[in-house]
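Try it yourself: sequence plus magnesium ion, in.
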Amino acid sequence: MTTVSAISIRNLVKTYSNGKQALRGVSLEIPQGSLFGLLGPNGAGKSTMINIMAGLVNKTAGSVEIWGFDTDRNPRNAKLSIGIVPQELVFDAFFTPFETLELQAGLYGIPREKRRSMEILRALGLEDKAHAYTRTLSGGMKRRLLVAKALVHAPPILVLDEPTAGVDIELRQQLWAYVRELHAAGTTVVLTTHYLEEAQELCDRIAIVNKGEVVANATKDSLMAQAHDKVVVVTIDRELTEVPPVLSQFNATLRDSRRIAVTYDKRCVNSGQVLAALATCGFGIEDVTTEEADLEDVFLRLTQSPASEREAPVHVA
Ligand code: ADP
Ligand code: MG
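Structure, out:
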């Protein structure tokens, strides 16, 4: 089965006028129908990529196709195929939400009888505020209005750039629910985030971007499967100064004098084998806990350079 791309990016390079190379030759296929996560630390190049797709930033080299339309050769159709929710909250404060959507529809050349402004506002829970001044809306309502604005021309692709940065938990849940709904109704959704849990919870496919390069691109499940390590920590009934020799077959360390941590690759070893080896050591086991690697470990491994080369610790919120 061949997958049709909603977005196809080839050898994309962006060097800003100050010399900053934000994208260093990115190639990426985003399949139609996916809920795709672009994950990466701050400054990785996510917004640059999105803004190039949106036609807001000029690329330095490479090509971008949106729904099969090349952004250079067919910019109009490319633009019609994508709706972008920007990272920054930008509005004309003197328009009402209804006017904002009508204006946006006008920009897209949608005739009055085909506009769905009220319907879209209703879907985003903004019906009550349709005729209020936008500057009187709460932050969460403004965020939803931006989503509404991106949907005015019913694009097959919706891109959300850091949709939940600085947004409270309740609104985050609302937005996630709505994104899932849109996706279920057939919209291809791309979202950028530096929140791992967001990508982990929402997306079926994830690309990890770091320093202007794609360092991973896989289904969420196969990325998660890259998190192979599992740790068993046992608390024993006496004090130790070193790891018992029988455990040398594993990667075992002392957490403290009474706790042994055994790290193993769960593809090759199971916890029963680890516990069996521990049982031959002659001490009593008082407590056993296990720790499993998650997407965060994969993310950190792929985005952290060795400590010597690191500029600053990668912050994962
Ligand atoms: P992300 O969205 O992943 O946080 P950005 O795409 O915003 O990353 O930024 C990527 C890099 O490009 C960063 O180092 C950022 O400082 C730089 N950058 C972004 N916009 C500009 C600009 N207009 N001029 C110069 N450098 C920029
Ligand atoms: Mg950004």
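One thing you can check immediately is this: The pocket of magnesium ion (ligand 2) is lined by residues 46-47, 87, 161-162 (CB under 6 Å).
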